[in-house]
Amino acid sequence: MILSLLTLLLSSSHAIPSHLSSKTIYEAVRGDIHSINPPLPSCQPQQLYFLLRHGSRNFGTTTTDRIELFLDQLKKNVTKGTVVLPPSMEWFKTWEQGVYYKNYDLVREGMLEHYNIGIRFKSKFPTLFPAYFIDNYSLQATYKQRAIQSALSFMYGILQDTGPLKQGSDRLNLSTIGYLPPGIVIKSKHEDKLLRFMDNCPRYTAYINSLKWKDEMYKFEESELYLNAVNTLSVAANMTLNVHTAKALYYLCAIELMSPSQANYSQFCNVISKDVMLVYDYSKDLEKYYEYSYPFPLSSKMSCLLLKDVIQQLNSSSSKPVLKFAHEETVMPLVTLLGLFNDGEILRHNTTGFLTRKMKISTITPFAGNIAFVRYKCGNEDLIQVIINEKVQHVPYCSPQGCTIPQLQNILTTNAGDCDFDTMCGVTTEDTPTLPFLYATIAALLTLLLVESTYIFFHCVKRSSLCVEKQPNVAQRLLSEEYYDGSNEDEDEL
């Protein structure tokens, strides 16, 4: 019975898994910009406003530690004979682990994602990408290295074979078919209310520190459906997994998909059936959904300055492309502010129809996820086509063909009022933090520590069968239920 189940689970095709929530690679879910038609046959593209999340990246210290400790434990158990691999996992005995760097820099997959997006968009809209002079482009990235790397990768796709940087090029024999490095505007996080609005909104920071946005994910992970998924995965892998070591295997699938040696294919992913993957996908979606989207209205309202900039840029006489490279927590609030992917009711841990939800993070903000606003001249009217991950989206309150500037302005006013950022966020001063502010920050951190400790204690008591009673070393602690409660497993992009 178990062998037949394994055969079924591991006989899937090598299609790239597309249910890895925000850790889904772009190639798994993207459309094709070349298949998109203008709003009307007579329309001609005039300008592009393009917001992109950074590409596929390393997973940071905490998640990577858990992946590596899970692998170390598995290797030791296989060597000792305490875990007997099923026939379909015999490959693991000769599998060679790559290097998992514990930072957030782009991996090669992430560089290629943006490079190829640049190539495709320039091919689709050649008139929107003029010869490069610094005043011909509006190019901005956040201060994070992964965003800067993404911008450079994208612009290499745009500007390759147009500049002086080429092997053998010198002052007397200057190349014109090499690389042309672009200029990028980068602001510190507290100066950047456009792309790092979440860093400049105290009320949002208080919400994040409260950890309330994790409640529904925690409840879902205590559900019968989720625990059954863990059991199913334990059977497939022929080893005893708890709630969170099973999640380490899910992340192992994600990180291996980005490995150059895997070519968007990982045998670890084949251990996880689609049904199980959909459960884990929803768990992570609940976390991101409550962090950035509809359940907490301020999450989207605070992106109003960004939508305001979209409107101003597309309503100007300029035709230069506006290119912004940022993060999931930049893209998702803007998508929400536009009213896109709204399921009509708030998703919860016990939502029965979650498999058919509109708000599916992997298809909205995968690595390199993006939203493009293309302004077309259609006779006497301008229409703005909204494109997400190279697929046209119909924006509520706009016509099926696209949005007009007044319609976008109406969306902004309806969903964010007059966009008074400082008032909605509770900003009282733009000066250096005062002593009372520092006291308040320290108090918030102490409160966070108390909440976390209390949660971990009761979480472990409720799942006493899954908790590790003794933790004699760091490895056991990192893989234990009580430490790996989910609060630190996926260091967010903030």
In total, the number of strands is 7
- Structural category: alpha/beta
Q: Average pLDDT, to the nearest integer?
A: 86
Q: How many structural units, i.e. domains? A: 1
Helix content: 40-55%
User: What is the name of the CATH class?
Assistant: Alpha Beta
> CATH superfamily, called what?
Phosphoglycerate mutase-like
CATH architecture: 3-Layer(aba) Sandwich
The main pleated sheet reads as: 7 strands, mixed
Shape summary: globular
Explained architecture:
The protein is α/β, with parallel strands linked by helices. It has a single domain (2-427), classed as Rossmann fold, CATH 3.40.50.1240. The chain contains 18 helices and seven strands. A seven-stranded mixed β-sheet has the order 3-2-4-1-5-6-7. Helix 6 (215-221) runs antiparallel to helix 10 (274-292) and helix 7 crosses helix 10. The longest helix is centred in the C-terminal third of the chain and has 28 residues, at 435-462. The protein is globular. The relative contact order is 0.17.
Q: What are its keywords?
A:
seven-stranded mixed beta sheet; disordered C terminus; Rossmann fold; disordered N terminus; 7 strands
Quick structural gist:
By secondary structure, the protein is α/β, with parallel strands linked by helices. It has helices spanning 2-9, 60-80, 108-124, 145-159, 202-210, 215-221, 224-237, 243-257, 267-271, 274-292, 298-301, 304-314, 328-337, 361-364, 405-416, 421-425, 435-462, 474-479, and strands at 44-53, 138-141, 185-186, 322-326, 370-378, 381-388, 391-393.
